[in-house]
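step: validate -> pass
step: tokenize input -> pass
step: predict -> running
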Amino acid sequence: MSSEELRTSFSDLVVSSPTRTEGQTNSSGDSSSEGGLQVTCFTEDLHDVTLHFQIVRFSKQIYVWVGCNTAKFGHLYAAATTRPDNRVSVTSVLGGTSDNTGSGMARRLVLKTGLNIVLACNIPKDSPMLEAAAERKLVEKLKGLGYMAIDFPGGKVSFVAEMNFLPESHGERISCYRVLDDDGRTISGSRFQEVSKEVALKMYSEMVTLQIMDNIFYEAQRQGRISFYLTSNGEEAINIASAAALSIDDIVLPQYREPGVLLWRGFTLQEFANQCFGNSMDYGKGRQMPIHYGSNRLNYFTVSSPIATQLPHAVGAAYSLKMDKKDACAITYFGDGGTSEGDFHAALNFAAVMDAPVIFFCRNNGWAISTPTTEQFRSDGVVIRGQAYGIRGIRVDGNDALAVYSAVHAAREMAIAEGRPILVEALTYRVGHHSTSDDSTKYRPVDEIEHWRTARDPISRYRKWVQGNDWWSDAEESELRSRVRKELLQAIQVAERMSKPPIAELFTDVYDQIPSNLREQERLLRETIMKHPADYPTDVPV
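step: predict -> pass
step: emit ->
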């Protein structure tokens, strides 16, 4: 509320002469309610001076008038506790300075009552005893009216006489931020972060690259050339647009459906292929399943299979950036199913309490493998949960690259500048199966999948916008797809021919000096392989 609005509000609520009842109040101190207002007027003779008091409660705001001259408001102050240390902030709304009589009284009333107060005080500055007596009388009256907040160990609260249970929801669903319609046209009146032609074209080319990479690796798994794969089909905008809004200094803690973030940061197709084939050039030395990428160089933590374990880690990473006063944040990705894990709730509470600059990015694609969100939670999606932990949030169309880019860009600025966590919920749809171990047609209608694959494809939508700006042509499209496919097939051939990490690597990188029990395990493994060579891969050096 602005100073002018506050001043007008006070003028509307406070009776110009506290002794004039107008059917609402009387000078004996009785209270009455009308139109949502609770008004109390009384007079007191203090130190041979008649003081007039008026207390008006409207919604959660307390308006107080106290003075010896009923014809003047005196100075007007707004006082309230402020985040995060509960100190009292006093604003001079009408006349006066911060060291005036009313300013000190406003501050003390907030400290003693726990209420947010707008105070008009008309007591002479040279009458400290009169001011103190008036203050005591106000505290006594506020307590008697039941307005005072009590500072319980669990929180500061005020009281009401009615027994009211909170509703299970806010009623209206939280709206979803969008910039482009399904035909790639900017929605009239939409506000979004401007993106240069260079960045816009890189975003598009990387979205196409991710799509081609997913399709070819998926086919490679079906051919038996790699053991497992998991696509990002339908979620390319989430991957690339969110990554484009970040800095390379920001720390990424992914789930397993964010390879596009790593692609944007500079992970090459050859590096992707090396990991999926688990060869000797794989940074994880073949110990992880395919798609469990990681890169220290690119500030991208290695994917962890257990759901949501990365969320508390992200809070710790963000807090370390804050301690080091780095101009960076952490971001962690997870799906709607991950919000059912305890780590989700622990991480949000931890981040809020510690004011950690971390972005929680939820890909709400409607399915946790085969469990729909209707069986996952009763709340209005995920973003609403941030309020319970004191975290700001936004819901965004995850198939709209410009909306995702703008939302994450703004979230990053807030997280760093204000030192706070932000929750982003991107609504999208997983067009592909959960993984190569899943057949989603067993629990989703085929026509539903096809609708999202065609009518709601994020790449097609974004391409229309890029072409609408005369930044892209059909010839460039054909060249891009041909080149990426050729580069990826070559990378796969190289990765496939490369040797596997030797057996000895199974026992390294845990202890500086390998203990005797691990040496014994290594000896037994080698003996077993020698006895049963047909049961073990022939391309793994023994």
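step: describe -> The mean pLDDT is 89.
step: cleanup -> pass
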